[in-house]
Structure formats: C-alpha cells, structure tokens
What does this fold into?
Amino acid sequence: MKKLVEAVGLPLFEQIGKEIRPTDGGQDLYAACRDLFRTFENLETQIADRKGIRRGKLRLGVVTTAKYIAPELLAAFGEKFPGIEFSMKVSNRDEIIQRIKNTEDDLYVMGQVPTGEVDVEAIPFAWNPLTVMAPRGHPLTMAEKPVPLHAVAETPFLIREPGSGTRHAYLRLFAEKGLKPNVAMELSSNEAIKHAVASGLGISILSIHSLALEGTKGPIEILEVEDFPILRKWYLVYPRGRFLSLTAQKFVEFSASQEQFITDRLVKLWPDLAKYL
Ligand code: PGA
It folds into this structure.
C-alpha cells in the first residue's frame, strides 16, 4: 500500500474520526482498476470466441417462474450447439437483481425489467401471461363470466412471497382498482401454490407457463376474470455495457427466434389466450 501511495504521489485514504475512507484519488484508482479487470475479462471471452462457439459456457440466472421455460430453451439451444456447458441459478426477482449487480451470470431471464435498481439492456422474447387459477368445481368456475375482479379479491387468496415479480404485478392491478386480495396464506413457490389451489385452500394468480406439464384439464382451472390475463413478457437481461460472449449473443438470438413457437404452445394450453394477444 505504501508503494502504491508513493507511485501515485497522492494519499489514497484519509481518517475521519475512527473511520478510514478512500480519498478522491483512491476512488479514481479503484475505478480504473475495476475497468482494467473488466477489460481483461472481456479480452478472455473475445479470445475464447475466436476459437469458435463449439466449446463455451453459459451461466443463466432466472427468476423462479422462468424455470418453466428456461430449461426447454437451454435444451433446444444445446441441441444446436452441443459442447456448451450450462448453469442455471433460480431465485426470486430481488435476489436476481442482486446477482445482476454483482455480475454473477452471463444473462438473466426476468418478467419485469429492473428500473432504477440497476442499469440493464433488456430484450423481450416471449409472452408470460398471468391468469387467475381455481380448483376445478370452485364456485367461481361456475359463476357468470367474466368474473368481476372484486369477487376474486374477496375469495381466500394464496399469495407469493415479497420479492416475487408475479406478486408485484397482480398487487399493482388490485391497487389500481382500489382492491386488496383476501390473503389466506403466503407461499414462496409456484408449485406449492398449485398444490394448495388443488387442495382447495384458495385461489391464486400464476403464469400460464406454470401449467406447462399438467395442462389445463387437470385439477386446476383457468378462470376468465375481468382485467385478465395480465399480459407480461419474458426478457433476457444483462448489465448495460457488459461485453456479451459469442455464446450469450447466440442464446439471445436463439431465444428471440423461439417467440412464435412459445406463443403457439401457450395458446394450445389455453386457447382463450388468442383473444387477448
Ligand atoms: P417470480 O417471477 O414471481 O417468480 O419472481 C418473476 C416475474 O414474472 O417477474
């Protein structure tokens, strides 16, 4: 540290009371070092890219609900580019934002682009519609359609945990309409919510993607409700200014090319969706 101070010719730290803080010169040096490390990291990726996309790594961070769509995308991408290794971290929205800040992964799949918290590029690539779901035979499934939103708000409701993007989207809609859901239970997983809905503990609002495996003819029904579906999109997100590896660039292109295929699959799952797209 002494040598560094001598080389720079300025104090790098100052003591204020008991606290030691970097001086302006210290902060400049820190920012320059950070840029240098980033440049070297980018150079490493560029050199790997010149060797071709036959071998590479793709680290994906996805919000919990995207776990219904990201593995299939990775599988189809992997078929096109065998030899690429994948890792996928699944967390809720708040945790994914933290991972973006720490640049822990190459790309992120999110349902709502962060604004303010972190500066990002976001590329939309597929629909993520949210619908009201009820157990088969629930009184609301037999009520006149579309079911008014206040009737949904009055029915015992299973809510996702704070930090969930899905929760954020439907609470905003309820608030805009001056309503509040009648929360019966909070659960931090879509799968737990599906089981709780099927068991008759309440109704909920989930992405249609969450029914991809069992379909809409099972124990859970999609309700036609006013102001629904909430039409959201999936986005591929990365920190603005970050150099994307060739593998990551190809994955962005590939995901965008899958949009129609994903839409067709959603419509097959819930044909009424076609009316709203
Ligand atoms: P989540 O999904 O509710 O699993 O966090 C994120 C989103 O749809 O924004």
